[in-house]
């Protein structure tokens, strides 16, 4: 396995295909024994045609990646689009259909207005029951936050501590969109978006791309002496409408996807050394702690208070800065998480490095939890 990633941020004057090519080039530069002619298929996650008014994007990305005439698949699962692309690629290799493939994710968003982006993102929610009635994703996750606060006593300060932690990490990441620290006071006093979520509780509108080279364990021996193995892969879905769910304090799709990934890997939550989770809003990170069983139900706020998820904590989470600070080009997010964990396991994460990291988890959520993909990576011998 090899990985590459573009800078995340406001990449003016560039199309998604050009940004994707940056990530692809880095992936090949990091694995010089892999030739572009070795790649037998391309699986790319991209949420929406509307940002650039461009559909039929699979062959476009294959062309710009320098992959001639390969089967090219574009997958859509809202913010989990490239998590699904990775899951599909794993199945394709596992079936024996392909031996070496590329997985990617990309989105170009910042050239559109905030109103336009909000409308495009809302297409990942239910039209007749949510979009039609004006529910946006900040509003949806505000409902989730209020439910969690009411049942478990989670506080606005605990939400803000997630933002402070992730910006502290993002300030160490040269590829992060907003690579700067924020104080607890700044987070708590920032503009209200949808109670209790404030400006610093919300992830960024970003451009970016990531690319992964994936091969069978047998073929990996030809390309590298330091492989990173994907040992667990889980994916699940849930009702798209929040109104259909029995509980708003967690995501069933996350719990099921995590359980399947743990079972496939033969691992327990306590075996995870470092994780990237889908913090599209700060409440989503606290809920992810619980859904991934990094702590007990209702204990996510306490975990952030204890500092357990800091870089040097018991279970470091979002060492890259997460969606909150690194950025959230929605189609690229899942593959970008894997890029970060790949570098962690190789000991190449620089100032973000978690000492002794051998097993990592990536949690990629789509919409308000209707889709989730969880992958577990392990450093090989």
How would you describe the overall organization of this protein?
With 381 residues, the chain is of the alpha/beta class. It folds into 2 domains: 2-111 and 207-223, Peroxisomal Thiolase, Chain A, domain 1; 124-204 and 226-379, 3-Layer(aba) Sandwich (Peroxisomal Thiolase, Chain A, domain 1), CATH 3.40.47. Helix content is 37%, strand content 17%. It is built from 14 helices and 11 strands. The strands form 3 sheets. A 5-stranded mixed β-sheet has the order 1-7-4-2-3, sandwiched between helices. The protein is globular, with a radius of gyration of 19 Å. The mean pLDDT is 97.
Question: How are the SSEs placed, and which strands pair?
Answer:
Elements lengths: L1 E4 L10 H14 L12 E4 L11 H8 L7 E4 L5 H14 L5 E8 L6 H9 L4 H5 L5 H16 L3 H15 L13 H6 L2 E3 L2 E2 L9 E8 L1 H7 L4 E10 L14 H14 L8 E3 L5 H10 L8 H7 L15 H4 L7 H13 L13 E8 L4 E9 L2
